[in-house]
Amino acid sequence: MAKGKSAGGVQNRAIYSRISFLQQAAVTLAAIQQQSSGMSRRLATDLRAVSLKTRIRLKPAVKQTLCKFCDSVLIEGESCTSTIENKSKGSRKPWADVLVRKCHTCGRERRYPVSAPRSRRKIERGVEGDPGHLQQQKQKGWRNFKA
């Protein structure tokens, strides 16, 4: 007999719980040892590997707690420093604020926009192709245009 379909639920529940455990364990170990420990970095590396291999997107909050270059856990004041920069002329543009996180382990910096809302992905916007663009090309009389 074939298995019946489960009613609702989350697909890949085991993978999501593994990713959650790896993230919690890496943060806990980094907080306890107060240095860039090898074990917390290994857990962060495993977390990134699991998410890449299973093609599961990590949430931005989780990604911002890990250094992209050395896989150390970023804890404010201990393993990283954060500053807000605004390189517009005289800091006149409030939407140009950027959060800069510098890792103490590798010395690299990452920049995140602060006040600008994140734009929705193309799929969420419902945009498959721009039919208005095709109409404009037809009206201009482009040669060899086939729609």
UniProtKB/TrEMBL annotation:
InterPro entries: Rpr2/Snm1/Rpp21 (IPR007175). GO terms for molecular function: metal ion binding. Pfam families: Rpr2 (PF04032). GO terms for cellular component: nucleolar ribonuclease P complex. Keywords: Metal-binding, tRNA processing, Zinc. It comes from the Eukaryota. GO terms for biological process: tRNA processing. Residues 114-147 are annotated as: Disordered. Belongs to the eukaryotic/archaeal RNase P protein component 4 family. This is Rpr2-domain-containing protein.
